[in-house]
Amino acid sequence: xxxxxxxxxxxxxxxxxxxxxxxxxxxxxxxxxxxxxxxxxxxxxxxxxxxxxxxxxxxxxxxxxxxxxxxxxxxxxxxxxxxxxxxxxxxxxxxxxxxxxxxxxxxxxxxxxxxxxxxxxxxxxxxxxxxxxxxxxxxxxxxxxxxxxxxxxxxxxxxxxxxxxxxxxxxxxxxxxxxxxxxxxxxxxxxxxxxxxxxxxxxxxxxxxxxxxxxxxxxxxxxxxxxxxxxxxxxxxxxxxxxxxxxxxxxxxxxxxxxxx
Length: 261
Known about the structure:
- The protein is an alpha/beta fold.
- It has one domain: P-loop containing nucleotide triphosphate hydrolases (Rossmann fold, 3-Layer(aba) Sandwich), CATH 3.40.50.
- The protein is built from 9 helices and 12 strands.
- The chain has helices at 17-22, 44-56, 70-79, 84-90, 100-103, 130-140, 159-166, 169-186, 201-210, and strands spanning 11-12, 27-28, 31-37, 60-65, 93-97, 121-123, 152-157, 188-195, 213-220, 229-237, 247-253, 256-259.
- The strands form 2 sheets. Strands 6-5-4-7-8-3-9-10-11-12 form a 10-stranded mixed beta sheet, sandwiched between helices.
- Helix 6 (130-140) packs parallel to helix 8.
């Protein structure tokens, strides 16, 4: 299902042929991208397809979530043919739970098969200090011997929770700048999800200027399809102006994501 990619190459694929082609082969390593979504859209399968393709390609991956427990993402990973429990044990996947401890006291996100050891899962009890969020990401990758042939991919889901909790735009900008610096130093690629219509448009523009690229996910009503259709638009990729405006539609149904174009 997913195209193979060597960690030594310069591009990270989603494993969605039409989207990868629209992106000119994939997203560059050493870059930070914002994935914007609006009400009614679901960017989770789209982002997890990026991480699942990384696992298929033997990249190291991390997923920091402020919105869901690991069980939610586990089922999506399985739909992409990955065994998330095994990926946690091997160190290819790290999950940073910034939801259970921060917003739901006493709620456990540890999946049943790893309850005894809590392997690969770290709980982040406080997201009010974005520096601690970045530190949690750094800790999750301490076991990785980084170098030019080592692939690293990550996802932060979502920045909106951090923005709403912190209440200080300067700290949010510091978080983004630190993430970008680490991506460039470690040759890693991070997708940061953002609820576009939940914030002041001027603030969104400021965030967009800090990113290496912007992908927008919206829901499209299409009577030809019984299930919701999601559309990914390439709003901006720095250095690749010719890619802007390209749109790809996909559908997530019964644990599968499919290109519709």
